[in-house]
From TrEMBL:
Annotated ranges, domain GST N-terminal: 22-108
Annotated transmembrane regions: none
Domain GST C-terminal residue range list: 110-236
Gene3D superfamilies: 1.20.1050.10, Glutaredoxin
Protein name listed in UniProt: Glutathione S-transferase
GO molecular function: transferase activity
Pfam families: GST_C_2, GST_N
InterPro entries named in the record: Glutathione-S-Trfase_C-like, Glutathione-S-Trfase_C_sf, Glutathione_S-Trfase, Glutathione_S-Trfase_N, Thioredoxin-like_sf
Keywords: Transferase
Amino acid sequence: MTPTFATLGDHPISARWPAEHPDRIQLYSWPTPNGIKVSAMLEETGIPYEPHLIRLSGDVTSPEFLALNPNNKIPAIIDPDGPDGKPMGLFESGAILIYLADKTGRFLPAGAARYETIQWLMWQMGGVGPMFGQVGFFYKYAGREIEDKRPLTRYAEETRRLLNVLNQRLEGRDWIMGADYTIADMALWPWVRGLSFYGAEELVGLPGFGNVGPWLERALARPASQAALNIPDTNG
C-alpha cells in the first residue's frame, strides 16, 4: 500500500532521493520511452520539477522506490501541491500525463476531444508500448538468443499492424488530434523512436509508413522533446 504522507520529506523515497527543491514536482525516472513521455510533458508545460535518476537494476526494487510504485517501474512522480493542496504520489506514465494535463490545462482538449485523446493514449499504453517493447527484447536484447523466432515474428507483425493504424490516423493530420499537439503524441513518439534504437526499422517496415516518419520528425524537432531524451541525466 502506498503510504500516506503529510509532506514530501515524510515519504520513504525522500530518504534515498532527497529533494533539493521540495516545493517542486519530483520526477523519479530513467529515459526509456515511458520515462521520456513524462519528461517531455514537464518540459512542454514549464512546470517546475526536480528529476531523480532511478536505475532500472537495483533502484526500482528498493524499498524506498517501491513505497511510491509497488509495480517497480519508472516513471513516478510526487506532486507536493497535489489535489486540495496536499502532496500526492502517482505512477503509470499515462496517468501522470493526464494528471499533468489537468493540472496545467495544456495538451488535453476539452469536451469530446478529451476522451478521443485519452482513447489514443490508452491505445499506446495497451498496444504500442507492450508490442514495441517485445520487439526490442527479442530483436536487440536477451531474447535474440532464443532460437525459436516465432515470438519475434509475432511481435514484429503486430508492430507493423499498429504502425499501419498510426499511419492511417495521421493521414491529413499533423498530429494525432489534428492541428494540436497533445499527450497522445507525447505518449507515442518515444516508442516509435525506440524502434530505431532497437535497430528494428527494416524489420517492422517503418520506412514504408509515409505519414509516421514526418510526424516523428515534427515531434523530435520540439525543444522539449530534445531535452526530454536526456532527462534524467544518466551520466549524473
